[in-house]
Amino acid sequence: MKVQLINNPTLEFVDSAVGACWGKGGYGADTDKGKERIERVCNKFRHASMLRFASYIFQVELSTSALLEWTRHQHADYAVKSTRYCTKQNPDDITVELSKNDLVNTMLTRHIEEIIELIKANPSLANDDLKLLLPQGFIYEMQVQFNAQSLQNFLALRTAKSAHYHIRDLAYEVFKQLPESHKYLFEDSLYSEELV
Ligand SMILES: Cc1cc2nc3c(=O)[nH]c(=O)nc-3n(C[C@H](O)[C@H](O)[C@H](O)COP(=O)(O)OP(=O)(O)OC[C@H]3O[C@@H](n4cnc5c(N)ncnc54)[C@H](O)[C@@H]3O)c2cc1C
Hints:
4 strands; 14% strand; alpha+beta; single chain; 2 domains; Gyrase A, domain 2
């Protein structure tokens, strides 16, 4: 599991968008006055569409299980490394995210070793056939982009106790990767025991 923020997000255009609605212009996204207005308008008054003017791009390594869940979030943009093109490229790079159960992990590890052996012994096998052998623990790489509004929704759903532990760990890592000066916008989206 790996998450890395790879762009340099700014709240400058959220600030100017909020200001535009009242004909007041930007206050400056890094100023106390600007931050307070963004928090009040977007979070408190739920004029959250203004948050779409900030975008966050992450490089992520995640299990197939987590990828299936993550890509249900339609308000995000995805570039996922294709198993149709890449499965047999570097067989030794085929890896899995383990479960919390030793028995399952033993089977997962054995299965991956068998796939790697199969590829090495049969170089002419097609990726389109091989990819069907990959388990839900198989690790994908992807680049994903959220705007701040869709990221709030992702964090709210995927840091919840009800989320699978793979995507839950990823969601907390996404939050950790955010610039410190942006975290105030997302803190209320994180799962809180007190809300349940
Ligand atoms: C704990 C958990 C269990 C789940 N279990 C299952 C399951 O068993 N089976 C399954 O199929 N899925 C399951 N899901 C996936 C879930 O149904 C959503 O598809 C996924 O969480 C994406 O959420 P979203 O629609 O809010 O996100 P996004 O697609 O990013 O949408 C963001 C927001 O946009 C709005 N929106 C998006 N599309 C529409 C629309 N068509 N109409 C109106 N408003 C829209 C909604 O307000 C939505 O919250 C589960 C999710 C969670 C968190």
